[in-house]
Design a protein that fits this description.
The protein has 193 residues and is an all-alpha fold. The protein has helices at 2-23, 30-51, 57-85, 95-99, 102-115, 127-152, 181-188, and strands spanning 158-159, 164-165. It has a two-stranded antiparallel sheet with strand order 1-2. A hairpin with a 4-residue loop joins β1 and β2. α3 crosses α5 (102-115) and α3 (57-85) runs antiparallel to α6. The longest helix is centred in the middle third of the chain and has 29 residues, at 57-85. The radius of gyration is 23 Å and the shape is elongated.
Length: 193
């Protein structure tokens, strides 16, 4: 159920990020947009993981990582669509056609990598340099999604009998062995009233 919620929302978030990346007139802001996207993605994965009541940290991180892989591919699809949607010479075949044809997506991405697509202080990143930038960006997307899964369960307690997450308590509790051992024996036997 969690994936049924997170994949469409992640897709929309990724499409927004891709369109901002392509249409952003100030290249220097790209890093800020990327960080905001990663934070929003991590929060999305964390929130949905908690709402889905996932209690196993490894499963949450794995699910977050798989969502990250999907969203890295989705970011390429929406980036290509946004990029060629602004190009009069070459039209985008459409998002869903691109989603179903990874070979076409990576061919188009490789063409963009070879030629570059933006300038930074008179320098046009392309080839291996642009590929490195994209690898860092992709690693950030994967990491944000996986960390969202991990952060969802960080120091959280789930009450199995009442089927909900325990509430945080601001009061400081200290545990000590009771002087009267009958209270301890009753507590161990489950008599905690």
């Amino acid at each position: 159920l969690g994936l049924a919620v997170i994949l469409p929302l992640g897709f929309l978030l990724t499409a927004l990020y891709s369109y901002i990346s392509v249409h952003n007139p100030v290249v220097y802001l790209a890093v800020i947009f990327w960080l905001l996207y990663a934070a929003a993605l991590s929060k999305l994965v964390s929130t949905v993981t908690k709402l889905a009541q996932c209690r196993d940290e490894k499963s949450a991180v794995l699910a977050g990582g798989l969502v990250g892989v999907f969203l890295v591919y989705t970011s390429w699809v929406t980036f290509v669509h946004a990029m060629f949607g602004t190009n009069d010479a070459v039209a985008s075949p459409g998002v869903f056609v691109l989603l179903a044809n990874p070979g076409v997506v990576f061919e188009m991405v490789n063409e963009i990598r070879i030629n570059g697509w933006y300038e930074l202080m008179g320098f046009r990143p392309q080839g291996a340099g642009l590929g490195l930038i994209w690898c860092v960006e992709s690693f950030g997307i994967l990491s944000a999604a996986a960390m969202g899964g991990k952060l969802a369960l960080h120091e959280e307690v789930f009450c199995e009998s009442c089927n909900k997450w325990a509430q945080d308590s601001e009061s400081k509790l200290s545990l000590a062995m009771p002087k009267d051992q009958t209270v301890l024996r009753r507590s161990v036997q489950g008599d905690v009233d």
